[in-house]
Design goal:
With 215 residues, the chain is mainly alpha-helical. It is built from ten helices and no strands. It has two domains: 1-48, Arc Repressor Mutant, subunit A, CATH 1.10.10; 51-215, Orthogonal Bundle (Tetracycline Repressor, domain 2).
């Protein structure tokens, strides 16, 4: 039912515009009552992203089932591939959603909120495999884990955005693997392993967090 409602919302947003579309119209297009819509979604913005909850669960399952010998960054990269698979499973819908998200601020904000959930999941996982105190004289601030998680998401975003702009065409798996190789080369020595040289003196760091979206 969630996907049926989402498909109805996408059709109406595309034909008559996001602002002009009401929840009642979405429910009618899907052939259900208004109360049925609200059993599945809290708002019409939420209806355009029906799969993020399930995808987050699948990504978490990848992390939970990681073999002990696997590098933590490799595990996170495998986890975020669940997001790309969600988009690649329905290229036409994904491309249209990309167009709508770029045009409608409310949808863009909803997507940003979804991205933040993935970043938090990956940051928590990396924190469990990294002791930043070894690098900063006992300062256990989670900066590097947060930056590494953000880098994985940014690499994914770059490839996803390029794929969407190409109309959902191209070998997205190969492009992702190339992007993730750059992330591993940059951050791989800091997570899952202690440095071989003495820790550098503590430095002042800016903690301001920026918001990321898939595109």
């Amino acid at each position: 039912m969630r996907r049926k409602l989402a498909a109805a919302a996408m059709e109406l947003f595309a034909t008559q515009g996001y602002e002009a579309t009401t929840v009642d119209e979405i429910a009618a297009r899907a052939g259900v009552a208004r109360r049925t819509f609200f059993r599945h979604f809290r708002s019409k913005e939420e209806a355009i992203f029906p799969d993020h909850d399930d995808t987050l669960v699948r990504a978490a399952a990848v992390l939970d089932a990681a073999p002990p010998h696997e590098h933590p960054l490799d595990t996170v990269c495998r986890g975020i591939k669940e997001v790309m698979r969600m988009y690649a499973a329905a290229p036409t819908v994904s491309v249209e959603r990309y167009r709508l998200t770029r045009e409608v601020p409310a949808l863009r904000e909803r997507e940003i909120a979804s991205v933040a959930r993935y970043e938090r999941l990956f940051t928590r996982y990396l924190l469990g495999h990294f002791d930043e105190g070894a690098h900063h004289d006992g300062d256990d601030d989670p900066l590097l884990a947060e930056v590494a998680a953000s880098a994985v998401v940014t690499a994914h975003n770059h490839v996803l955005r390029r794929w969407l702009r190409a109309g959902g065409q191209g070998d997205v798996e190969t492009q992702l693997d190339h992007a993730f190789a750059i992330v591993r080369e940059t951050f791989g020595s800091g997570i899952g392993a202690r440095p071989s040289r003495p820790a550098a003196a503590p430095r002042r760091r800016c903690r301001r967090r920026t918001r990321t979206r898939w595109w």
